[in-house]
Amino acid sequence: MPARRSKNDEPASASPPAWLKEILQRWDDYFTRFDRIFELVLKMQETQQVLCNSLRDLNARVSALGEGTFNDAAITWVGIDEKESDHATQAFDREAIKEVIEASGDKELLREWNNKKIDVRRYPEIRPKKSMRPRIIKITTSSPQVRDNLLDHMRRARLSLIKRFVHSYARKDYTQEELEIDRNLRKKAGQLNRQEGRLAYVVRDLRIHKLKTPHDFPTDNPFNGGPSQRNMEDNNAYSPRPSLSDGQRIDSR
Asked: Which stretches of sequence are listed as region Disordered (predicted)?
């Protein structure tokens, strides 16, 4: 009679029973699927973050379209009348800037202009049908240094093409916050002008200045010869820079 085999006599290499194999295989498949799901969740989070960033950028761009995009290398030129057509206006604007650059004799500005690195266009691009005020001119340069150089010559020069626009002025492009400050200051200047009954206060470089020689309001009503309330508030934007009083300014912010 053969001797009974004990548990210790089982070979070490004996495979687990079939029922245990099935359980282990199921657990292995489960963890494999879990790893795949976890990787998918991580990828979804990354994709969601990319989409959120893209939506924020898009929202910022759309918001900026309402006021024009701020550019730290750009100049805003206000008060230059437009021609009968957009094509004629564009040609005149470019000639006016070209005249300033050529008169400056600045080699860097001449090089930038000849290399077409200075862009000139009206904003908004489509001319409003009901507005009688000229659109502003946006002048984009290649760097803040070039902008400052050109702006300095624009403020000093009053050449043949723009000589008659005595109420025009050039400034740096404003941020959204600076635009809001500028609007509030113009409203305050308009209130001061109504109290004076003349154009005595203007806004320059985010400050209210008092003119050395106040002017009568421009006549924009052919029936009574008087200015509209809107005109009294806005015309301070078009007063000539040389008329500012010496050092007299009013900080009304």
From this structure: 212-253
